[in-house]
């Protein structure tokens, strides 16, 4: 893993770049596991305005390489609970996948106060990213290893 990556909190001025990163990743990587219609519905959510809105209720982080945002991820309370949190919106540019960026995002999120105060952390995992999260120590919630009605796996980690 390179030390060249800089992890920092999201700024609203990052919204356009983060929106483009997420949409590119959805259309390039996640499209292998989901229908075009499913991806297009997600694309509608991750407009710059949608990213800013999500950042308003989470601790949202970005990863930079030479001033280019190459990854992002967020952590927030699980349905308002003090002792449970959720990871959200973890995306890595396709050309940076497999280079330690995702691991760096998870490490940053796992140092955040939302993670540190939680007894349990859940992640709604895409089919595309499920194996990565399992490598990072997350396990199927209640042992359920099939996707739910949102076509996501529910993974969790206890602390």
Pairing-aware structural class of the strands and helices? alpha+beta
CATH class descriptor = Alpha Beta
Name the quaternary structure.
single chain
Biggest sheet architecture: 7 strands, mixed
CATH structural fold name: Aminopeptidase
Strand content: 25-35%
CATH homology-level superfamily: Gcn5-related N-acetyltransferase (GNAT)
Write structural notes for this entry.
This protein has helices at 15-28, 36-45, 48-55, 101-109, 113-116, 130-135, and strands spanning 6-9, 59-65, 68-77, 84-92, 120-125, 139-140, 153-158. With 159 residues, it is of the alpha+beta class. The protein has a single domain (6-158), classed as Aminopeptidase (3-Layer(aba) Sandwich). A 7-stranded mixed beta sheet has the order 1-2-3-4-5-7-6. A hairpin with a 6-residue loop joins β3 and β4. The two termini are 25 Å apart.
Summary tags:
alpha+beta; 159 residues; 7-stranded mixed β-sheet; single chain; Aminopeptidase; 6 helices
Quick description:
Strand 3 and strand 4 form a beta hairpin.
Secondary-structure map:
Elements: E1 6-9, H1 15-28, H2 36-45, H3 48-55, E2 59-65, E3 68-77, E4 84-92, H4 101-109, H5 113-116, E5 120-125, H6 130-135, E6 139-140, E7 153-158
Parallel strand pairs: 4-5
Antiparallel strand pairs: 1-2, 2-3, 3-4, 5-7, 6-7
